[in-house]
Amino acid sequence: MKSGETKDSCTLDQEQVKNLERITSKIPDDTELQEDADSLKALADPTRLKIIHLLRYGELCVCEIFTCLDKPQPTVSHHLNILKKAGFIKYRKEGVWVHYSLRDREILKILDGLSGEK
């Protein structure tokens, strides 16, 4: 394929080609895009979103979280693990208890923007 020519017979002039090269040079690489997609997948579940909203108000023990969600402990632990692997939450152990909190409160701004809250 010649410079400025696409596979569907669309011919671009030199200025268009340079502009597209400039734009594509600013797009993150495939590895970074995959990480972003994985993070978005971690949030793409109502239960996990609810956990993030619960943690907005501070640290909670896992037993408090599954009580609020009215879901079995193994189910909640599964969701917590996904959020933890994605880097949205952190935990600390205190004896037999595990307490969860938000790793970075910036996620709340994103969620508030989605729901229209201020």
Outline of this structure?
This protein has 118 residues and is mostly helical. The protein has six helices and three strands; from the N terminus they run αααβααββα. 57% of the residues lie in helices and 12% in strands.
Explain what this protein looks like in three dimensions:
It contains six helices and three strands. The protein has 118 residues and is mostly helical. It has a single domain (14-115), classed as Winged helix-like DNA-binding domain superfamily/Winged helix DNA-binding domain (Arc Repressor Mutant, subunit A, Orthogonal Bundle). The protein has a three-stranded antiparallel sheet. A hairpin with a 2-residue loop joins strand 2 and strand 3. Helix 4 (62-69) crosses helix 5. The N and C termini lie far apart (50 Å).
Comma- or semicolon-separated keywords:
single chain, 118 residues, mainly alpha, Arc Repressor Mutant, subunit A, 3-stranded antiparallel β-sheet, 57% helix, elongated
CATH superfamily: Winged helix-like DNA-binding domain superfamily/Winged helix DNA-binding domain
Terminal Cα separation, in Å?
50 Å
**CATH topology value:** Arc Repressor Mutant, subunit A
Mean pLDDT: 90
Give the second-level CATH assignment, the architecture. Orthogonal Bundle
**Topology as H/E string?**
HHHEHHEEH
Strand order of the largest sheet: 1-3-2
Radius of gyration: 21 Å
Number of domains: 1
Note the main sheet. 3 strands, antiparallel
Q: Tell me the helix content.
A: 55-70%
Estimated structural class: mainly alpha
